[in-house]
Specification:
Order of helices and strands: HEEHHHEEEHEHHEHHEHEEEEEHEHEHH
Distance between the termini: 108 Å
Strand order of the largest sheet: 7-6-15-13-14-12-10-11
Largest sheet: 8 strands, mixed
Strand content: 15-25%
Radius of gyration: 28 Å
Shape: elongated
């Protein structure tokens, strides 16, 4: 009995020693990892831009007395440590995989939906900004009351394709947001309902699966509604046919969320079946002129959607040979870029302004270019969070715009 007891005590002592050894080893390894990571963090590996997230990264801020006193240095330094830590992309990918394993279907405001759709969360309306923008549009219209003004908001995919959202996904009611905006716009400003034609074609490929934009097909259906509501001459409408320009497009929502990084889809452009049905054009970007609305070099870059209009610009002047004197001022976000070709047949000139990049005001354009109609075209998420539109609508000394 004594021998059995001694053996049992020895086993218990050995087990305690083994557990203590393992704990010490784990603590030592953890300590070494902390030291290694701390040393590696000292190695300068700063990047100015994240291709994966499609955004600028915070670089190491400069320490000044003023920045230290008002607290901006610490804010910038915290953002710097968050953006520049070692293995950031790797840890992000691992986190996404773990989230999927436990059933989570949302990352950075992007839902991983059904049928390989990624859907951007519907943004809640900033009531103060939205009402300020609507008031500014009314004041702008009052200065040019004889010129028709149209407001068209494009519903986001999570609204039109709500059936693609993952189970239990909760997002804002964009239909109600649009309804509220349409009720608040002033008399004389025409609301263009784009939800109806897009909803009618929701089973078709009207939104990209990996990108936040609508497809060219979605823009085509919207253009039909614009032609009807704006009373454009349908005899000028060409017969359109589509061409695929790439089959390897992966959009910004994939980069933002980390989902479906290997999924590739197509981008199409639409052209007139008969060349004579489409007027000739000269596209003036200010520092460059071209005879096309497409920049095919963008197909080789990260954001192939910039094929349309070469991406976003402050102001673009599109002159055409269309048999008309009508001139359109289009105030827009990037959603409009792939729709613009569908508007070309109806106007002698289209002035395109993106308030995100334009630093002037619209009065100079209205007076210099003899604008005959104005269209505000935004996607819903952009419009309800906008903080630039109000600035370009303010009355001010008109800037001279060279022909």
């Amino acid at each position: 009995m004594r021998q059995k007891k001694q053996k049992r005590q020895k086993r218990q002592k050995d087990n305690r020693s083994l557990r203590l050894y393992r704990r010490k080893t784990a603590a030592f390894v953890f300590f070494l990892l902390l030291v290694l990571i701390s040393l590696l963090e000292l190695i300068p590996v700063e990047r100015d831009f994240s291709e994966k997230e499609n955004r600028s990264l915070q670089t190491r801020p400069k320490l000044t007395l003023e920045a230290a006193a008002d607290g901006t240095y610490m804010e910038q330094y915290e953002a710097f440590r968050s953006d520049q830590f070692l293995g950031r992309n790797l840890w992000g990918s691992l986190k996404n995989r773990m989230d999927l394993l436990i059933g989570k279907r949302e990352s950075n405001g992007v839902f991983k939906g059904k049928d390989q759709y990624l859907l951007e969360e519907i943004a809640s309306a900033d009531q103060e900004k939205t009402e300020s923008d609507l008031a500014a549009i009314e004041e702008f219209h009052a200065r040019y009351e004889k010129i028709p003004v149209y407001l068209a908001l494009v519903p986001n995919a999570a609204n039109v394709l709500a059936d693609k959202l993952p189970r239990f996904a909760v997002t804002e009611d964009q239909t109600e947001i649009f309804s509220s905006i349409s009720r608040k716009i002033g008399e004389g400003i025409t609301w263009v309902d784009l939800s109806r034609p897009l909803g009618a074609h929701s089973k078709e490929e009207i939104y990209y699966r990996t990108d936040s934009h609508w497809t060219t097909l979605g823009a085509y259906y919207a253009s039909q509604q614009l032609v009807e509501t704006m009373g454009l001459d349908t005899e000028k409408t060409p017969k359109w046919e589509k061409y695929v320009v790439t089959n390897i497009f992966t959009g910004d929502l994939s980069l933002k969320s980390g989902y479906q990084s290997g999924y590739q889809e197509s981008i199409y452009i639409y052209t007139a079946q008969k060349e004579k049905e489409m007027p000739g054009i000269v596209v003036d970007y200010g520092d460059d002129k071209t005879s096309t609305l497409y920049d095919r070099s963008k197909l080789k870059e990260r954001d192939a959607y910039e094929l349309f209009m070469g991406g976003s610009h402050g102001m673009v002047d599109i002159r055409t040979t269309a048999d008309t004197t009508d001139r359109l001022l289009l105030v827009k976000d990037s959603y409009a870029n792939c729709l613009i070709p569908f508007l070309v047949p109806y106007y002698r000139e289209i002035i395109v302004v993106d308030p995100e990049y334009y630093e002037g005001n619209l009065d100079g354009i209205m007076e210099e270019k003899k604008i005959s109609s104005v269209l505000f075209l935004y996607n819903g998420n952009t419009f309800v969070q906008d903080d630039k539109l109000n600035g370009v609508l303010q009355s001010g000394k008109a800037e001279q715009i060279s022909e």
